[in-house]
Amino acid sequence: MIALIGLIVGIILGVVLSPEVPAWLDPYLPVAVIAGLDVVSGAVRSMLEGNFSDKVFVVSFLGNVALASLLVWLGDQLGVGAQMSTGVVVVLAMRIFANGAAIRRKVFKA
Amino acid sequence: MNRPVPPNLLDRLMAEAQADDYALAQEQAPTTRGSLVVAAGLLAVIGFLLAVAFWQHEAVQPAAADRRQVLIDRVESAEERAQESQAKAADLRASVSQLQKLASSGLGEDFADQLRAVEIASGFVALTGPGVILTVDDAHPPLPAGVEPDEARVLDIDLQLAVNGLWEAGAQAVAINDVRLTSVTAIRTAGEAILVDYRPLEPPYRISAIGPPDLAEVFAGTETAGDLKQLGRDYGIQSDVRSVREVNVPASTANLPVRAEVVKGASP
Predict the structure, then answer these.
(1) Do A95 and B17 lie within an 8 Å CB cutoff?
(2) What is the DSSP string of B21-49?
(3) Residue B203: helix, strand or coil by DSSP?
(4) pLDDT at B55 over 60
(5) Which strands sit side by side in the sheet containing B199-201, from one edge to the other?
(6) Beta bridge partners of B200
(7) What is the pLDDT of residue B208?
(8) Are B211 and B133 in contact (CB under 8 A)?
(9) B63 inside 8 A of chain A by CB
(10) What are residue A78's phi and psi, to 5 degrees?
(11) CA A42, CA A64: separation in Å to the nearest integer?
(12) Calpha distance B177→B154 (Å, rounded)
């Protein structure tokens, strides 16, 4: 419950403040968001499986966002930024799907 | 939690990409349930990022579209200009080659005079000089007895009559309401209006003609002048000839036939 409230507060803050995103952050923001969704889906799954850990949650979020951003930055430097973004998003989406499937199995037993 | 590792590289990538961090962490160091407050804080951060990214995307998209439209407009107008310039260049090239052909056709020293004469006759240049202004207008009420209002209007044939009379009397250049007449200019009726060079004109019709100083007298002696007077008596059509010291006749805007060739050796 408290987790859901945190999410809603974050969204409201983002909408209300709607801060100007610096141009150099443009390529990393979508990747960070997808990484965040991946971590959230993993957390929901672990809660349903009863092995949630806040440490893993925070560390995996920071680690994934950092790694994803680093990859995209590296791709930018090598001239394959768009392709690297695509690759990162594909992998993250794959993880989200896997977590979603696990959640579905837990919730609906199917 | 030991999963069998698939031998295929792609399958292995899939399996490892989907590794369950929590289960792995549990294996290494079993812990109790984590703090939900920390989780809520991180979720707030993620929600914030989500909202910002969404808003950013929404804000950036229309601006980009606007910029694109501006660029498209610019490209299109530039293409139009380029096309116009190309057409102009083609025209100029054509006239240059024509002039070169004329110049090399050996017309002699009086070529410029001949060219001038052709230009005047073809309506290619605007002219100013002595001449007459012949005004023709619809009948004003009261109309002569037995004349319907429809009959009391100037017709295309009346204007043709007047213009031909002026040519006959020696006019060099004629314009009706500032529309220059050339050898290919038609005077005809379209519905209620009279078209000269495909442009509708309004009465009164002001026919300007440049010619010899005695143009008005010569014209008065022609059959045409008598016919116009007859029109006045029968239908109330008004006409008036005035000798003027300076008449302006504009250049023709009609598309003149430009295929004319000078025959080499022909006497002018």
Answers:
(1) yes
(2) HHHHHHHHS---PPPHHHHHHHHHHHHHH
(3) coil
(4) yes
(5) B187-190, B193-196, B199-201
(6) B195
(7) 92
(8) no
(9) no
(10) -90, 0
(11) 12
(12) 14
DSSP, collapsed to helix, strand or coil, labels residue B85 as: helix
Instruction: Read off φ and ψ for residue B126, nearest 5 degrees.
Output: -75, 150
Bridge partners of B54, per DSSP, are none
The DSSP bridge pattern shows strands B173-176 and B193-196 to be unpaired
Kindly indicate the confidence band of residue B16, based on its pLDDT and cuts at 50, 70 and 90: low
Q: How far apart are CA B215 and CA B217, in angstroms?
A: 6
Query: Average pLDDT of chain B?
Result: 80
The complex's ipTM?
A: 0.72
Owner of token pair 């006749």: B249
- Pairwise CB contact (< 8 Å): A29 & B53: yes
Q: Which two tokens stand for residue B136?
A: 């023709």
3-state secondary structure of B123: coil
- Name every chain A residue with its beta carbon within 8 A of the beta carbon of B28: none
Q: Is B198 on the interface with A (CB under 8 A)?
A: no
Size of chain A in residues: 110
More confident residue, B77 or B12: B77
**Residue B25 contacts A, CB cutoff 8 Å:** yes
Provide the token pair at B37: 């407050």
Q: Is the pLDDT of residue B258 over 60?
A: no
**Tokens linked to B163:** 């213009």
Cβ B248 vs Cβ B209: under 8 Å: no
> Highest mean pLDDT range out of B18-27, B46-55, B141-150, B229-238?
B229-238
What is the value of pTM for the model shown? 0.43
Q: Give the phi and the psi of residue B114 in degrees, each rounded to 5.
A: -65, -45
Which of residues 50 through 109 in chain A touch B, CB cutoff 8 A?
A: 50-58, 60-61, 91, 94-95, 98-99, 102
Residue among A29, A21, A23 nearest A85 (CA): A29
pLDDT digits over B184-199, tens only? 888 888 888 888 888 8
What's phi and psi for B210, nearest 5 deg? Answer: -105, 135
Backbone angles phi, psi at B9, to 5 degrees: -60, -45
Contact B120, B173 (CB under 8 A): yes
Residue B236: what pLDDT? 85
